[in-house]
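Q: I'm writing a short explainer about DUF433 domain-containing protein for a general audience and would like to include a description of its predicted shape. Could you first generate the structure from this sequence?
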Amino acid sequence: MVAIVTDSDIRSGDPCIEGTRISVLDIKRRVIDGDEDPFAVAAEYDLDGAAVFDALAYYYDNADEMRELEADAAERRQAIKRESERLRAELT
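A: Of course. Here's the predicted structure. Afterward I'll give you a sentence or two in plain language.
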């Protein structure tokens, strides 16, 4: 079993596969949202298949936390977009 860890200095404290900067949400987005083959994702990240499945298990076992992290990420993306648009407007 591969450990899923959190470290405030890595990926803003999002749960990651131990020894990597690959977050549980990175795996979820590719395998679940993107409908990619888990073993292909594992190969691209130089992981074994178990690490990908452990990340997915963590995602489902901690669904409330994961939904909150996804909402936070969406909010950060929107804030960045708004700031980018504001700066662009200032420059034109």
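A: For your explainer, you could say: Helices lie at 24-33, 38-44, 49-61, 63-91.
Q: Perfect, that's easy to follow.
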